[in-house]
Amino acid sequence: MTVVTLETRLKEMMDAGKQKPQTIWGYEKFLKRIGAVDNTMDRYQAESRLFALTSANCRRSTIIALRSVWGIKIPIPAPTPRRYELPSEESLRFVAMQSSHETRILTMMYEGLRLGEAAALTGTQLRKDRLLVDRQVIELSITADSVGGRQRIVRIGPPKYGVAEVTVPNWLQPRIEALTATVLPTSIQTTLQKASKKTGIKVNPHLLRHWLCTDLIDKGVPLPLVQKQMRHKRLETTIGIYHEYQEELLHTLYDKD
Prior knowledge:
mainly alpha, two-stranded antiparallel ribbon, about 10% strand, globular
């Protein structure tokens, strides 16, 4: 059998153009983590190394990479939803105030923007009380063989699930209008991490989307409207993955003193 290296195989996939560059570079990260750097690994070896991965979702992503790159037919498990302990609105606003990218963090909190979408946001996307979500900043790192280090690629790309409009609170509109340039996603993420550490309140960009979905549902907003604001293709995603709830609430219904 002719040995094919991971770099060669990924280059073939990149040249074919059937998958996004960020997807292919993600494959590289996951496969190198388990040492699947050529086509000599069989299913037995792959499954043995998968058990060393403690994260279920990381294991799932690695299986997808094995199937896509090396054709190893391991069944893909269902994703494991990540659950969050959501801080209060006041706590999240306090964390956001500590960041130089406060406005962009607020758009993730109140419009459900993803990190790359918030990084690409400028005031030109605002249409009165509607925000056009039509781009994201994609920040990628690839191996630069010529220098033996890491090379960062930054470009503007389409949003994850297509162009859409979301509703913006009236008080936030002037702040969005003042945004004149894009920023790097890592810049937002770094300031948010520092603010979380400073305040002791755990916050990350994806938690803000969970907070918005949960807050809208708990306040009685019709589910189709919540789905539209979250830009989910399926209502099941809105209800089953993004809506956080406490099972302990059942005790308040049936437990008696």
